[in-house]
Amino acid sequence: MSTERLAPLDLAFWHLESAGHPIHLGALAVFAPDPAGPPPAAHALLSLLATRAGAVRKLRTRVRDVLLPVGGAAWTPDTDFDVTRHVHRIRLPGAAPVETEAVALAGGLMERPLERGRPPWEMYLLTAADGGPFAVLVKLHHALADGMRAVAIGSAIFDELADPRGVRARARARIREAAAPAPARPWFNDPGRLVGAARDRIDGLGRAVGVGASVVLASRFDPRALPPSLAAGAGGTRRLGTAVLDAEDVRLARKASGGTTNDVLLAVVAGGLRRWLAGRGEPLPEDGPRALVPVSRRRPGGASGPGNDLSAYLLDLPVAEPDPRTRLARVRAAMDRNKEAGPLRGAGALAVLADQLPPIAHRFGAPLAGGAARMLFDLLVTSVPLPRSELSFGNCPLRSLYPMAPLARGQSLAVALTSYGGRIHVGLVADGEAVPDVDLLARATADELTELAALAAAD
Predict the structure, then answer these.
(1) How confident is the model at residue 8 (pLDDT cuts 50, 70, 90)?
(2) Domains in the chain, number
(3) Structural domain of residue 261, as residue ranges?
(4) Cα–Cα distances in Å, from 421 out to 58, 378, 416?
(5) Could you tell me the strand order of the sheet in which 423-431 lies?
(6) Could you read off the pLDDT of 168-177 as tens digits, one per residue?
(7) Is there a single domain that holds both residue 167 and residue 301?
(8) CA-to-CA dists, residue 320 to 108, 316, 374, 416, 434, angstroms
């Protein structure tokens, strides 16, 4: 595999990280034993996980600095790669259901930084008794993948996509080839390419000025009054809360109100926050909190290039609004305005701005940008797509999959959602000190959808 320069946004994520604020995302997948086959042995599952993860070419690369461009870095093959440094087994006590114990353990595993001198990823096989349910936790540095690419990388462990004879596996192979970097060609002795590169740089600077102005205009230089749990500075610990929503309830709410599935889910998050804050006796914010809603810029069905490819929208979650239907209507109207303006407006366009900046700006500016996240948004809410097919690992069917988003510096909550098997799985990554009761927030989120669906059915 040839050396591949980090894309600008990847470089920004790489330099945003600090020891107390790791920038990685992940997922917790829970599997049931194969009902028609022999009980899975833990050592066989661990070997299978290591074999499949080690076969993913991207997972055998690490980041190293380069001389040119100044401040840049590149993905390069790890000549000392050893998959056993990245794939581990943890034995669960078995006193509670495997999913319960895995969720409790996941926060601690996610708060540990990845070793930067090695390929930046880890996977954990979480087992109790041989032959019983088990879980796999996947942990990837954000420089390695955005949400959609993380799904592509993580999916390589599933039977359906890892089988070289499968149709989907062949489709994935074509995507991998399309995403591979083209061989580097010298341009310094090609006047036409040199002129084109200069023109692109000038155009890029113009776009950077426009996007940068949008970011500044969307920034808040006067801190908003937020509930203590959302305003608390992150302490570095992590807890995971999970909820499972009925996709049919989401469909009922969307059919009654119009809009999109994502509109309904954003409104449910807002309602869940309202319920949870009220239960804690905290004041409801009159305005917001403001959510950053990532938007993939990859073309659906098309081959995607290497690196993160994101922008985002801003959304003030109407937590103070008491009526669930009105909350949904306000979310829908705000998201419609966002889509009409496009993803190059607002603080979310910071990701687009990153594409226009030279590497040296990321190396020295990313730590400052990370500290300024609170000026731009209060929490992250993201939806991650999954393959529609039924998935399994070692012939053991996938039962639940909870996505986990990175927690920005100075923030206490990040929400990720994904759809699988007729259900929406919600992963709430929270700062353990600011939000020790994230499980109550997860329950409040599920209760909110139940009420919204009941109202929709009654209309």
Answers:
(1) confident
(2) 2
(3) 191-385+406-458
(4) 28, 31, 17
(5) 238-246, 423-431, 413-420, 379-383, 290-296, 310-316
(6) 444 444 334 3
(7) no
(8) 33, 11, 20, 22, 21
